[in-house]
Amino acid sequence: MSTLKNDRFLRALLKEPVDTTPIWVMRQAGRYLPEYRASRAKAGSFMDLCTNPDLACEVTMQPLERYDLDAAILFSDILTIPDAMGLGLYFAEGEGPRFERPVRSMAEIKKLGVPDPEQELRYVTDAVRTIRKELDGRVPLIGFSGSPWTLATYMVEGGSSKDFGKVKGMLYSDPKAMHMLLDKLAESVTSYLNAQIAAGAQAVMIFDTWGGTLTQQTYQDFSLAYMEKIVSGLTREADGRKVPVTLFTKGGAQWLEKMAMTGCDALGLDWTINLDEAKARVGDQVALQGNMDPCVLYSTPEVIRETVKGIIDRFGADSGHVFNLGHGIHQHIDPENVKVLVDAVHEFGQRG
Length: 352
Prior knowledge:
- Homodimer.
- Its EC number is 4.1.1.37.
- One of its GO terms (cellular component) is cytosol.
- It is found in: Cytoplasm.
- This protein has about 350 residues and is of the alpha/beta class.
- It contains 15 helices and eleven strands.
- The protein has helices at about 10-15, 35-45, 45-50, 55-65, 80-85, 105-110, 120-135, 150-155, 165-175, 175-200, 215-235, 255-260, 275-280, 300-315, 335-350, and strands at about 70-75, 90, 95-100, 140-145, 205-210, 235-240, 240, 245-250, 265-270, 285-290, 320.
- The strands form three sheets. Strands 1-4-5-8-9-10-11 form a seven-stranded parallel β-sheet. Strands 2-3 form a two-stranded antiparallel sheet. Strands 6-7 form a two-stranded antiparallel sheet.
- Strand 6 (about 235-240) and strand 7 form a beta hairpin.
- Helix 8 (about 150-155) crosses helix 10 (about 175-200) and helix 9 (about 165-175) packs across helix 10.
- The protein is globular and about 60 Å long.
């Protein structure tokens, strides 16, 4: 494997000194880029784009050609695992992901197998290998997965949900079934992320998109406990370097201390908490990633620069900050504004 020319992202995650604050953007390969839309049209559908390693590599690289980003993130979807479990994933126009066969009973959960990442999910590990080769040490590659709770919400609801009635109904009425489902998912996510690391991912991230819908207690029992289990089962060194793990619970600011105790290296933050407060609470234990509201990118270059400076000033001069948005970039954002963002982070984040 080639040596890394730019490793400030990995260094920041491990709280090592950096020359400037590193940045990558959640959903950086996405619909806001005209070249991405062209690749997706060529692929025929979103899943065709995800399952073709060469096209997945092409779109992963697109934002790096445009912007001075400090990391690439594997282009894939969080629902690859439930799809590999045979639930019949499809994307309805304007409705997002749906499953033909949702799981809603203990009997259905018992039938689910744990996918072999080098068999049913081979297209993902092939994409990681292809991207890693294409990157040639330019920047590190991030692998990722959805959290067990987040995957379970889609599997039980049958798709996206506004009130999570079915999945939370199962959690309260049949906790045993829910724990069995989450256990299988934790095992699946662990082997999936380890396969991505073996294929060349240099850092991994767990997206707990729907953890924030839970109560204090149910979050700990049904989301965090399973993420902790995954963290403890991950390969933490590859290519002679540590492989940092980031946990991100959207809407999870109230649980930062508990998240920091899982053994992860970094926590992703949404925009509902200020960085200085988060750092005061957990900064000695973990690095922090975030946390600009993506909607700032709808404004002017002046406002973007001012907001970036404010976020970096709040964190201070210590190492241990990776700049990111508080969630994925929106599809109608002007690509030029992303350049303003990336350049401002490197300018205002300079050390020494």
